[in-house]
Specification:
single chain, about 290 residues, alpha/beta, TIM Barrel, 8-stranded parallel sheet, two-stranded antiparallel sheet, 12 helices, binds zinc ion
């Protein structure tokens, strides 16, 4: 795609369609991600499958693809196999997304939190956070991603480290956070504080992912003082207190799409799917809200 993210956002009021999750699609197609290394394993054990999932999202009408770099940090690979090279896996992940994207889509590099997604770890040393994130950002930018997607962020401290680090790169960066109540980050930071912090950063779109659809409007309201375009990619359900996945309205394509219409009315310009959602949701979003829709 020859246009940059900013050009696409400025050109019109169109909604850009982000892809859906890779992990859910890997599972649905029989690849066991529930092992050390998680979705990064697929880059080595079945790269053709990763490519096919990206291609299916392109065919569904996605404008933005996310490379499978959510778990290619060295720290995540350690438990799987110390022989795995983080830089190499990040590079493979981006190449597969670029191959699928061709000229049709922009490729986002996923910049994930270093700890467990749903359990914010506040004890990680700042020096270590800087070192690990800097490595990932250097690698993603050197292999030519079009966009940095700082996603699934749960901790104010880690977020501040990343926001400082991205200052040195010229690539457009989007930020997506996780909230359980729509009012706070998982570490308890009020979301309006994030909205405020981001106004002094290089972030070009702000929003949430990996949240149940039911709280998205509350999140958007919490971020309303920030005028940036909003990004939302929600889940098909949520994890209950016992750690079991419970489907919610997000699992129903029509309900999810109906809710997405209200998010667009509240400033969402980039719309995709997160855990539990699949390719048909992205196809439906593209049909309803994408470039060629009316
Ligand atoms: Zn998710």
């Amino acid at each position: 795609m020859s246009e940059t993210l900013q050009e696409l956002l400025e050109k019109s009021n169109r909604t850009l369609i982000l892809d859906g999750p890779l992990g859910t699609e890997l599972t649905r197609r029989g690849f066991d991600v529930d092992r050390p290394g998680w979705s990064a394993r697929a880059l080595v054990e079945n790269p053709e499958l990763v490519l096919q999932i990206h291609l299916d999202y392109v065919a569904a009408g996605a404008n933005l693809l996310t490379a499978n770099t959510f778990r290619t940090h060295a720290v995540n690979l350690k438990e799987w196999s110390p022989a795995q090279n983080a830089r190499e896996l990040t590079s493979i992940a981006v190449e597969l997304a670029q191959q699928a994207a061709g000229n049709a889509c922009l490729v986002c590099g996923s910049v994930s939190p270093l700890g467990d997604s749903y359990r914010p770890q506040t004890s990680l040393s700042e020096d270590w956070l800087i070192e690990q994130h800097e490595k990932m950002l250097d690698e993603l930018t050197s292999v030519g991603v079009d966009i940095l997607l700082v996603e699934t962020q749960t901790t104010f401290r880690e977020l501040k480290v990343i926001l400082r680090l991205i200052e040195k790169y010229s690539i457009p960066t989007m930020l997506s956070v996780v909230s359980f109540d729509g009012l706070h980050l998982l570490d308890g930071t009020p979301l309006p504080d994030i909205a405020e912090l981001v106004t002094r950063s290089k972030i070009v779109a702000l929003g949430c992912n990996c949240v149940p659809v039911e709280i998205v409007n509350t999140v958007l309201n919490s971020l309303k003082d920030n005028q940036l375009p909003k990004i939302v990619y929600a889940n098909s359900g949520y994890q209950n207190a016992e750690g079991t996945w419970v489907q919610s309205l997000g699992a129903n394509l029509d309900e999810h799409t109906e809710l997405a219409k209200s998010w667009i009315q509240h400033g969402v310009r980039i719309l995709g799917g997160c855990c539990g959602t699949e390719v048909p949701l992205i196809a439906k979003f593209a049909e309803k809200f994408g470039e060629d829709s009316v």
